[in-house]
Amino acid sequence: MARRFRALVTAGRLTLLISEILLLTAAFVLTTYFGLKVDPTVFLLYDGGLAQISLFLLCLLTGMYFRGLYADIRVKSRVALLQDLCLVFGIAILIQGLAGPFAPGLRLPLPVLILGGGLALAAIFAWRILLTALARRTAGQPGSGGDRSQPLVSSAPVPGPGDEAVLVRPGVAPADSDRA
């Protein structure tokens, strides 16, 4: 069971999930400071604002999981990513609107929902693009394990019986002090 969990939850996916939770929370909390006419501290701490934001974030993260946005971390198409994010945000807003008549205490105020949703959508889109660019740049650097320009096996001649063995890494010239 633990082995299966480790295979499903890699470090990259967990980092992405935690960073997106922080980004989404920051976007909605920041929006309460600019989008509400009441004191945001009172709204967040005493009027159930944090619970409302947490419920909406749960809808968003669940939708992103079911849409497959955590299956492949790298962005292959910016247009497809934007479409998936818009679909997830739209469904979360619909769930918020459908749940409003049944549980009005769990519904986000409209300014927070609209402004926070727009800010969060832009932040997640930019964050995914930035992480993909960093992953591609890191994968191409020598020593990162992703450098595919160097051959794994060199075509050096095989040493004879009187020759000494020298360990040579691709792209690194052996120093004279390495030969003992």
Helix/strand-derived class?
A: mainly alpha
Termini gap = 50 Å
Helicity range: 55-70%
Could you report the average pLDDT, rounded to the nearest whole number?
82
Number of strands: 0
**Low-pLDDT segments, ≥5 res:** none
Strand content: under 5%
Number of helices: 6
**Count of folded domains:** 1
Give the SSE string.
HHHHHH
Shape, per Cα inertia axes: elongated
Rg:
25 Å
Please describe the biggest sheet, giving its number of strands, its sense, and whether it closes into a barrel. Answer: none
Structure description:
By secondary structure, the protein is mainly α. Helix content is 60%, strand content 0%. The chain has helices at 2-8, 11-35, 40-45, 49-66, 78-99, 110-139. Helix 2 crosses helix 4 and helix 2 runs antiparallel to helix 6.
SSE order and pairing:
Elements: H1 2-8, H2 11-35, H3 40-45, H4 49-66, H5 78-99, H6 110-139
